[in-house]
TrEMBL record:
PANTHER family: FMN-DEPENDENT ALPHA-HYDROXY ACID DEHYDROGENASE PB1A11.03, S -2-HYDROXY-ACID OXIDASE-RELATED
Swiss-Prot/TrEMBL keywords: Flavoprotein, FMN, Oxidoreductase
Homology family: Belongs to the FMN-dependent alpha-hydroxy acid dehydrogenase family.
Residues that coordinate or bind glyoxylate: 115, 150, 229, 232
Protein name: Alpha-hydroxy-acid oxidizing enzyme
Binding site residues for FMN: 64-66, 93, 113, 141, 205, 227, 260-264, 283-284
UniProt KW Electron transport keyword: no
């Protein structure tokens, strides 16, 4: 991978604490097997789904990840080009190193990820800017009241972006770049406050407990992402594919439930969908693809997952994501 320093590679790859949850996300997929159906004439397969009015080629989206210019000089703009070429949708991190307007200029469908800031006026200005750029949903990350201990970054002394690289969407009115604050005073009222300042669909990212899924429905959000932040926040948190069934049950079809964490192959997508997810998002695989091959790399990585999902659907006897049901999976 050209230009990816060991320190930055560790930032992308690493997790919190002893990285048990990081490992658990992938390991949990490895404990689930498919029980395929046969002779179901699956020739007319169609992977497309529609989320909040946006059609995507397949239920495989790009998770919000920080600092893409550490992986590639064109950063998030290249990621968006590759995502658009694959027919998918990108969630732009609040910690993006390119302006949301430049990312939107690629015509890639975008959602914007937000860490609500203690300064409500500043939060509103960031949301307004993203909305003006044309993002189609707001993804509010709720699993990060504090920033977790990440031993690799501490060991490497990774604290700051290199000179000339900043979180471009955190400039305030004076052009000064603010740093992202984690806020351990956030409560459910933040959803109501965001609702008051934007008409965008609000998606909560980082739900693991079914009681929180129920509260999210009561607070009128438009969707949920079952996520443990790729094992980067609470080390020891449940693997996402293990958390999914209870969340899906609590939601009871009232909202789309998405999942991220450890999705590495088409059949992982199939398993998540069979257990009730509407779509999945991928984090690190997109970063590695960006580092290795820029926009074309991102396109190829997403295409690879979609081709793998298409083959898995055929081999499991399904034609569409909607046909995937829980009877198609079993414990390994
Ligand atoms: C390098 C990196 C940076 C991330 N930055 C953010 C972020 O800025 N905001 C956020 O909500 N999640 C962030 N995440 C979490 C991802 O959105 C996602 O939950 C996770 O990467 C999914 O797991 P996976 O990497 O196993 O696919 C980040 C993850 C990684 C690996
Ligand atoms: C302040 C940047 C936060 C990025 C992030 O969420 C992560 O590295 O997981």
């Amino acid at each position: 991978m050209p230009d990816l320093s060991p320190v930055h590679r560790d930032f992308f790859a690493g997790g919190a604490g002893d990285e048990r949850t990081l490992r658990a996300n992938e390991a949990a997929f490895d404990r689930i097997r498919v029980v395929p159906r046969v002779l179901r004439a699956t020739g007319d397969r169609d992977l497309r789904i529609t989320l909040f009015g946006t059609e995507v080629a397949a239920p495989v989206l790009v998770a919000p990840t920080a600092f893409h210019r550490l992986a590639h000089p064109d950063g998030e703009v290249a990621t968006a080009r590759g995502t658009a070429a694959a027919g998918s949708l990108m969630v732009v991190s609040m910690a993006a190193t390119a302006p949301v307007e430049d990312i939107a200029a690629t015509d890639c469908p975008l959602w914007f990820q937000l860490y609500p800031q203690p300064d409500a006026a500043f939060t509103a200005s960031v949301v307004g800017r993203a909305e003006a750029a044309g993002v189609r949903a707001l993804v509010v990350t709720v699993d990060s009241p504090v920033f977790a201990h990440r031993p690799r970054d501490v060991r490497n002394g990774f604290l700051d972006l290199p000179a000339g690289m900043v979180c471009e969407n955190l400039r305030d009115g004076t052009g000064r770049v603010r740093s992202i604050a984690m806020d351990d005073r956030l409560g459910w009222d933040v959803v109501d406050r965001l609702r008051a300042i934007t008409g965008l669909p609000i998606v909560l990212k980082g739900i693991l407990h079914p009681a929180d899924a129920e509260l999210a429905v009561e607070h009128g959000v438009s969707g949920l992402i079952v996520s443990n932040h790729g094992g980067r926040q609470l080390d020891g948190a449940i693997a996402t594919i293990d958390a999914l069934p209870a969340v899906v049950k609590a939601v009871g079809g009232r909202l789309p439930v998405l999942l991220d964490g450890g999705v590495r192959r088409g059949v992982d997508v199939l398993v998540a969908l069979a257990l009730g997810a509407t779509a999945v998002l991928v984090g690190r695989p997109v970063v590695w693809a960006l580092a290795a091959g820029g926009a074309a790399g991102v396109r190829d990585a997403l295409d690879g997952l979609m081709v793998g999902l298409d083959a898995a659907l055929a081999l499991a006897g399904a034609r569409t994501p909607a046909e995937l049901t829980a009877d198609l999976v079993a414990a390994a």
